Amino acid sequence: MRKTFYIIDDHEMLRSGTKNWIMTQSDWVCMGDSGTHEQAYQDFERMQKEGMLPSVLISDLNFYGENTGFDFIQKIHSLYPDVRVIVYSMFFAAGMVQNAMDSGASGYISKNASSEELLDCMEKINGGGEFIQAELQTNLIKYNKITDALTRREKEVMDLLLQRLSNDEIVNRLNIKKRAVENYISIIYEKTGVGDRGELVLRYGQ
């Protein structure tokens, strides 16, 4: 089984340190790294033409101060379904974990985890499984129990709220009326027991 990886993180020192640690402590081979989505797309297009796509992609979620990693994961998963994605992020609230997995990730590790856990995650998902850091699983179970009370559309709106999209951005993303978005948000606040957007993000999306 091929054990190759690509890593993307906009913090150069962290990216370099993680890449070098993996290569020195295991038999995984690095196929490349980048600090921007644009460079990663170019690299993946080139690697696909060469028939040398990595088996695992390690990706941060927060780029340029924004949670743009979800869209990146979705696009990579759509274009290269055989590449298994691990989210490696400083954000570890249950909402972020679930959104990442729903976007196409196969693993989720916080940057507070041990390096050995990252290797365990890589091995597990490379074998076709899923891996969520043990410390994150309890809150994820609680989060899913709460969101089970939401309708499909309410869950979609909540996911976008946790990605810090504005009401207008949610309107454009879901192609629904602004008044409908406002109504969904009010219902979400009531069902989750929060008072405003800031509390929702603090509780479920940081």
Give a brief rundown of this model.
The chain has 206 residues and is of the alpha/beta class. It is built from 10 helices and 6 strands; from the N terminus they run E-H-E-H-E-H-E-H-E-H-E-H-H-H-H-H.
Q: What is the strand tally?
A: 6
Shape: globular
How much strand?
5-15%
Cα-atom radius of gyration: 18 Å
Which parts are unreliable, with pLDDT below 50 for 5 consecutive residues or more? Answer: none
What is the oligomeric state here? single chain
Order of helices and strands: EHEHEHEHEHEHHHHH
- Write down the overall mean pLDDT: 89
Percentage of residues assigned to helices: 55-70%
Number of helices: 10
Sheet of most strands:
6 strands, parallel
First-last Cα distance: 36 Å
Helix/strand/pairing class, anyone? alpha/beta
Across the major sheet, the strand order is 2-1-3-4-5-6
Structure description:
The protein is an alpha/beta fold. 56% of the residues lie in helices and 13% in strands. It contains 10 helices and 6 strands; from the N terminus they run E-H-E-H-E-H-E-H-E-H-E-H-H-H-H-H. Helix 3 links the parallel strand 3 and strand 4. The model has no long low-confidence stretch (mean pLDDT 89).
